[in-house]
Amino acid sequence: MAQKKEPEETKNPAEQVEPTEEGKRVRVKIPLDRKDKSPVFVCVNGEGCTIQRGKWVEVKPYIAEVIKTGLAQRENVEVMIETLADGE
Length: 88
Known about the structure:
The longest helix is centred in the C-terminal third of the chain and has 26 residues, at 61-86. The chain has one domain. The chain has helices at 8-11, 61-86; strands spanning 18-19, 26-29, 40-44, 47-51, 56-59. With 88 residues, it is an alpha+beta fold. The strands form two sheets. Strands 1-2-5 form a three-stranded antiparallel β-sheet. Residues 1-25 are annotated as: Disordered.
């Protein structure tokens, strides 16, 4: 059976961080997820924000870094799960 190909946008979400002209905020987009449609809550040193999936939002650079790191880690976990499932 053929596997359903996901759009390129969701394949590498860790690269979705773009600096704005001001440099004080960065634009970030958390991709939509088939399993989890809920917004993502991010908290750094007591400062939290809720980010809706699938929409570009502007956040402070340290919030964007947490999002970028989390998305990269999630991708690493998915690769590891696929590797273990294939028996490699």
